Amino acid sequence: MSFSLSRTALQATRTTSLPCRCLPTALPLRSFSSSSLASTSAEPAAERPKYSLPNGLLLHGIVTQTGKCSQTSTVSVERKSVDHKTLKEFKAHTKYLIHDPQSLCVVGDQVSIRNCRPVSKRKRFELVEVVKGARERVENMAAAAVEEEEAKAAKEASA
């Protein structure tokens, strides 16, 4: 019996909590116009495709492998996480196979990729754009431009 008495005594001394002030107590009512309730508008509804994919997940990563399979590249995406116990931040990498139809990627490119319909068993991402080219690609393009200019100069000098 003493237990039930002490329990009721504890409940009696507990203060009631006040309602949260950050939320309004009474939500304003939404007003509907008469035209939105009735679907008798004269204009037809816009045609939507039967199936459509959402814009999807957009990731940024670095190309780590190309050339093993045609139209396929491997992209490593880095994400940062915090260990809940030690509160230390660490990096984790995930490798994705991407569909690259024109084989534009070179190892070292920074690319943005987006998820798409499954292309194969492991390929579920597609190349959106090459954000920054690899150093080798930039050097090769610069060397090719210099060679073209030298060829033009030699052609003009001989003519």
Could you describe the 3D structure shown?
It is built from 3 helices and 5 strands; from the N terminus they run ααβββββα. It is an alpha+beta fold. It has a domain of 82 residues: Beta Barrel (OB fold (Dihydrolipoamide Acetyltransferase, E2P)), CATH 2.40.50.140. Strands 1-2-3-5-4 form a 5-stranded mixed β-barrel. Strand 4 and strand 5 form a beta hairpin. The longest helix is centred in the last third of the chain and has 24 residues. The chain starts with a helix and ends with a helix. The model has no long low-confidence stretch (mean pLDDT 78).
**How widely separated are the two ends?**
117 Å
Give me the secondary-structure category: alpha+beta
Specify the CATH class of the domain at 58-139.
Mainly Beta
Percent in strands: 25-35%
Tell me the number of helical segments per DSSP (H or I, 4 or more residues long). 3
Uncertain stretches: none
What would CATH call the architecture of the domain at 58-139?
Beta Barrel
The major β-sheet equals: 5 strands, mixed, barrel
